[in-house]
Amino acid sequence: MRDYAKMSATYAPTLKEDPVEAELASHKLLLRAGMIRRASAGLYSYLPLAWRSIRKIEEVIREEMEAIGAQEMLVPMVVPGEMWQESGRWDVYGPELLRMRDRHERDLVMGPTHEETFTDLVKNELRSYKQLPVTLYQIQDKFRDEIRPRFGLMRGREFIMKDAYSFDADVAGMQKSYDEQKVAYARICERCGLRALPVVADSGQIGGDTSVEFMALAEAGEAALVWCDCGFAADVEAARAQIGVDEGPGAVCERVETPCEGTIAALAAFMGVSEAACRKSFAIIAEDETPVLCLLPGDHELCEVKAEHVFGHYDAMSEEQMAEYGLVKGYMGPIGADKRVRVVADVSLRDSKRWLVGANEEGWHIQGACPGVDFEVDEWLDLAESKEGDACPECGRPLKEARGIEVSQVFQLGTKYSEAMGATFMDENGKEKPFQMGCYGIGVSRMLQAVVEQSHDEQGIVWPVCVAPYEVEVVPLDTRGEVWEAADAVGRALVERGIEVVVDDRKERAGVKFADADLMGFPYQVVLGRRGVKNGMAEVKDRKTGERADVPLAEVVTWLAERIEPQRMR
């Protein structure tokens, strides 16, 4: 029979103090609990305890993928650069793509994602609609040369990722594959003990028309999102909320002196109006070098992602450039701007007729300005970043704000890659058509840290049973005599019942053992002392609730099994 694990033989070097490199609680705890170690910026080693949890997450992923017919395989990490050149992403992906050359001077990339690789793989193999649909996936290390890797496994340069790619004959088939993956992803989050919301997202560098992220809710999350009780949720970068605006002061268009600091807050206070009654201006230079003035409700910010979709890679105007185009920092507006400036406004402002805008003269604004009368708007666009209080686009109720950790994302790619790379099949009419594709990613290593970020307290990690490195820790307060004999017997009985157990056999003080047990966060602790063993009793602590129960030694295995087995969510 397989023996139980012993703490003395487990490589889990704990730390008493928080490492200076760590900011998030989850990052600190994974380091302190001896689960990960930093090799370099954004590069981490997974020590045995963390690796046990990683394998459990991967097992859940494999089970859910198998349930929907996805097939696991593996492609090379290093990819020929010509594939990325063929897809068009070689020049647009950015410096995060690690490029290199081999001894034959051939371009290579370290794969951050593998749309090109999988598309190239199937384009000469899947030739008929009769072979479709097909979904292939892998679990593999990825590399992205992040400019500022931080927060441990949250934003590393090398990370473990599950990526899947579906190939269908038509849009309906792609939608079915996408929906299956989305349901499976929700199940994976649930089974791994994560509280996650599916949110509408931007497709980013992956591309495609439709995307949903699964966000693990956490105050320390990098991503801001808005959500509603009706079920709507979206990343603020992708949300198309209904923004309420107020009319500005003044019945006619006229200049008004505003001897206040050139900010929206100061202007609103001086004029005695809400910030939503002011119009905020952003001056940028678009990728095609066109000068652009973006006008938004005064209480909202320009969404960088939305702006990039419209203007390409853009830069904020320098003060010298503003002067060239007749714009004055802090007092910018469409009236008096150079005719070369393209004026665009957020769609939420389309029905507003009285605008309070800058006069392009320091210390002056214009009130009562009316678009179409006093100035022209060249285009109405969705540019504003959604925020709490905006109306839900589905039910109209006020949205709420939260922060989240992106742990997975699903995309509808359509024919973006198949057309670019010539990946086609023969349909039922004998006509060549490009595959309809979807891609689906899970940050496996990020999910590990997200679990810890959601499940910890001041003492340490609080692992959910489903992904805990071990389900039970037996803590004998003496490593000799009848206490040790009882610990050995409990450990062996738990193994025989199929429960994962580690026994703290170290010759350490009770305080050290208790502190490490709480730090490492195994779901249940079985504490054995002389008095209890003599009376045939064990103390069992539930790490999550802190509740303690005196359980007869003869019943402790059954007692634990009744609680652990339902929580495995198999």
Offer a concise description of the structure:
26% of the residues lie in helices and 28% in strands.
Outline the structure in words.
With 570 residues, the chain is α+β, with helices and mostly antiparallel strands. It has 3 domains: 54-240 and 401-453, BirA Bifunctional Protein, domain 2; 254-381, Alpha-Beta Complex (YbaK protein), CATH 3.90.960.10; 470-567, Rossmann fold (3-Layer(aba) Sandwich), CATH 3.40.50. A hairpin with a 5-residue loop joins strand 29 and strand 30. Helix 1 packs across helix 10 and helix 2 runs antiparallel to helix 5 (171-191).
| CATH domain topology of the largest domain | BirA Bifunctional Protein, domain 2
Task: Count the domains.
Answer: 3
Given helix and strand content, the structural type is: alpha+beta
Number of helices: 14
How many β-strands, per DSSP? 30
Rg calc: 29 Å
What's the CATH class of the largest domain, please? Alpha Beta
Terminal residue distance: 24 Å
Shape call: globular
Major sheet summary line:
9 strands, mixed
The appropriate CATH architecture of the largest domain is 2-Layer Sandwich
Helix content: 25-40%
Q: Could you name the CATH homologous superfamily of the largest domain?
A: Bira Bifunctional Protein, Domain 2
Which stretches of 5+ consecutive residues score pLDDT under 50? none
The amount of beta strand, in percent, is: 25-35%
Average the pLDDT over all residues and give the rounded result.
Answer: 94
